[in-house]
């Protein structure tokens, strides 16, 4: 079929792009799954669609109903767009530290946006817990009801990757894939793709690219949920084992500092024309580390998560980088 029947039909089936510099540097074939080419410009469109389809199938989301979610932004954008296409309202709770561009996009999509202070998960006012409470309140008040998307612990999220992203990677490589690695926000992408690939070939190596400030590297490497340092990347960095992460087949965990990831993201833009956000820098840095560990001749796939213009005021802003004590690439500083 050459014609896509609306937005829903246009989610997924993204290209797999060879990353030149990473491949040359490692002697491996490093490929990026171009999730930024989804209609909402991120990997989270798939999770949004699967969460909504699952709630409709279960009968909890009814025509004209409201979807409530706590999100760093991308899931909210996916939910708002799919919601618009299917006739649902969206109410999005976002930590105020997230980029202005994502907040503007959410308002532009017609979502009701509630900004809350960025406090840890254990705090009852954490954005995830806040959104869960709000969903309960709205479910009782809204004439057509409301649901909580609950992307962290709703496994319809990873199901989207088990059923679509993983099989797409397998088909696009004709099953010739040796490793897969990415960072974790909810864990839906890593666990879902990891499970789909392992089911087809148990020898595919699954890696975790964890940013500083997240606790998962220490958990998978040493059995202890422990965080150290911090990162300016958004949408990734988890401190607990979410339901989506349960049973994730992780073989090789890596911890990636921003000073390693950001230059890679900047290089992708300057030398390969790929304008990506910070989590993609972490992912490609992880793919390079995994490639070096596995040795030349392997094919490793990672995720190109979202479009860089979502972070123009942050990682692509010399003043912001300087404020954070991070190096500014010379081409940006003019
Ligand atoms: N990168 C970005 C930019 C994201 O917004 C997210 C989702 N929060 C991720 C990566 C991680 O995806 P997942 O939630 O599937 O772990």
TrEMBL record:
SUPFAM superfamilies: Tryptophan synthase beta subunit-like PLP-dependent enzymes. It catalyses: O-acetyl-L-serine + hydrogen sulfide = L-cysteine + acetate. Its cofactor is pyridoxal 5'-phosphate. The keyword Transit peptide applies. Gene3D superfamilies: 3.40.50.1100. It is an enzyme of class 2 (transferase). Keywords: Amino-acid biosynthesis, Pyridoxal phosphate, Transferase, Transit peptide. GO terms for molecular function: cysteine synthase activity. Residues 9-306 form the Tryptophan synthase beta chain-like PALP domain. Its EC number is 2.5.1.47. It comes from the Bacteria. InterPro entries: Cys_Synth/Cystath_Beta-Synth (IPR050214), P-phosphate_BS (IPR001216), TrpB-like_PALP (IPR001926), TrpB-like_PALP_sf (IPR036052). Pathway: Amino-acid biosynthesis. One of its GO terms (biological process) is cysteine biosynthetic process from serine. Pfam families: PALP. Belongs to the cysteine synthase/cystathionine beta-synthase family. This is cysteine synthase. It comes from Tepidicaulis marinus.
């Amino acid at each position: 079929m050459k014609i896509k029947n609306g937005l829903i039909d246009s989610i997924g089936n993204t290209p797999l792009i060879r990353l030149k510099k990473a491949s040359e540097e490692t002697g491996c074939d490093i490929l990026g799954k171009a999730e930024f080419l989804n209609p909402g410009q991120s990997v989270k469109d798939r999770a949004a669609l699967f969460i909504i389809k699952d709630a409709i199938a279960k009968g909890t989301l009814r025509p004209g109903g409201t979807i409530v979610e706590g999100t760093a932004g991308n899931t909210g954008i996916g939910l708002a767009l799919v919601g618009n296409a299917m006739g649902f309202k969206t109410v999005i709770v976002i930590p105020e530290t997230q980029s202005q561009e994502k907040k503007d996009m959410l308002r532009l999509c017609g979502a009701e946006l509630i900004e809350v202070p960025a406090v840890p998960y254990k705090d009852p006012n954490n954005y995830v817990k806040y959104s869960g409470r709000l969903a309960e309140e709205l479910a009782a008040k809204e004439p057509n009801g409301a649901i909580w998307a609950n992307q962290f612990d709703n496994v319809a999220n990873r199901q989207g990757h088990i059923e679509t992203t993983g099989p797409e990677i397998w088909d696009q490589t004709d099953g010739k894939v040796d490793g897969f690695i990415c960072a974790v926000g909810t864990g839906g992408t890593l666990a879902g793709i990891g499970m789909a690939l392992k089911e087809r070939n148990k020898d595919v190596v699954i890696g975790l690219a964890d940013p500083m400030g997240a606790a998962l590297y220490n958990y998978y490497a040493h059995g202890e949920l422990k965080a150290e340092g911090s990162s300016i990347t958004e949408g990734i960095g988890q401190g607990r084992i979410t339901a989506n992460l349960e049973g994730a087949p992780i073989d090789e965990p890596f911890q990636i500092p921003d000073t390693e990831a950001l230059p890679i993201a900047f290089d992708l833009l300057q030398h390969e024309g790929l304008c990506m956000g910070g989590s993609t820098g972490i992912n490609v840095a992880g793919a390079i580390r995994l490639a070096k560990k596995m040795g030349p001749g392997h094919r490793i796939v990672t995720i190109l998560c979202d479009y860089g213009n979502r972070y123009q005021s942050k990682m692509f802003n010399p003043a912001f980088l300087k404020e954070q004590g991070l190096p500014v690439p010379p081409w940006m500083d003019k």
